[in-house]
Amino acid sequence: MFYLQLLLLAPVVYGDAVSDLWDKGKPALDAQLAKSTTCTKDKLLVRREWGDLSADDKKAYIKAVLCITTSPSKLDPAKVPGAKTRYDDFVAVHINQTMSIHGTGNFLSWHRYFTWAYEQVLRNECGYTGTQPYWDWGRWSANPETSPIFDGSETSMSGNGEKITHQSFMAPAGNGGGCITSGPFKNMTVNLGPISPAISPAPPANPRSDGFGHNPRCLRRDISNYLSSRYTRTQDILTLINNSKTIAAFQNTMQAAGTTMGVHAGGHFTVAGDPAGDFYVSPGDPAFYLHHSMIDRAWTIWQAQDLQNRLQVIAGGRTMMGFGGAAAALTDEVNLYSVASKAWKISDLSNACIIALHISMHFSSSNRCAINWRLIGIP
């Protein structure tokens, strides 16, 4: 039995209209949950937005992430000599599959499983008892640098990079660009890549063309609100969900990165720097997993708006933008190799059991009312 615990909290106290869409879709999800004999409420776990975690919960998550950045890699050093830590194993898997997991029919399901697998390693190998937090882009879109995610405090995912003269390729240069100097990850080492750097001066070239050589360097960021205040606001999330009538429209709008920009690229390039801005190596920045937990939340809410017609749907190819490859199918497998023990079909990762959610109310430490949305997994 594989239990996938995802996407779990939609706070309403700050006027998040996305939560209204969740409320709209909840009855269909409740009805689906009631039909299941394997997705039972005793298996539910809760994911929360970073800003709603207590200081102790944030520290517990940070401790677990730091743990896997010091735990040894399980990859074959002859194949991936640059992977020195368990954290690097995830980066290597993403690098290896990049061209077949973006602009593809498996984009959403692959990253759902990838984020869950990361959460499981934190729990099973580093003693973490919590769940993967998410970054509600809209909540912090006006000024992400001062958000509790990136404010550089001991309970953040570390702050901006040192201000240096630089160019960022997807937005005007912000107030960073250099190595991060504050927060829990200020001494973190990036070992793999770069392959497609999106900042100048670029990080030193990798000794191997595939990015798998050992190339130790600092974690760099160039956080600004240039993209977040234009493309990842709550209204942008609402437009994505409400205006996308097909899975093709939803995932294409989400992944847009050109004259217009979707929330996927908008989140990555709000952090920017190295490796967050590198298409291949982006999981090398630990903020990646908060971002993709929110990607999964958006997909779940979109599905819930027309559940029976959006559970088992797929569009796109097996290679990026469908160039030179066959169409993706629900029977295609998602295989994470060294970071997850089982390959799952896309149909399994999209099914009703995964997004069968249960609502409960609670009060946080600041006495603010919030909604927990909970989910279980694949039978």
TrEMBL record:
SUPFAM superfamilies: Di-copper centre-containing domain (SSF48056). Residues 102-119, 285-296 form the Tyrosinase copper-binding domain. Residues 1-15 form the signal peptide. Pfam families: Tyrosinase. InterPro entries: Di-copper_centre_dom_sf, Tyrosinase/Hemocyanin, Tyrosinase_Cu-bd. The keyword Nucleus does not apply. Keywords: Metal-binding, Oxidoreductase, Signal. Gene3D superfamilies: Di-copper center containing domain from catechol oxidase. Transmembrane segments: none annotated. One of its GO terms (molecular function) is metal ion binding. PANTHER family: N-ACETYL-6-HYDROXYTRYPTOPHAN OXIDASE IVOB-RELATED (PTHR11474:SF125), TYROSINASE FAMILY MEMBER (PTHR11474). This is Tyrosinase copper-binding domain-containing protein.
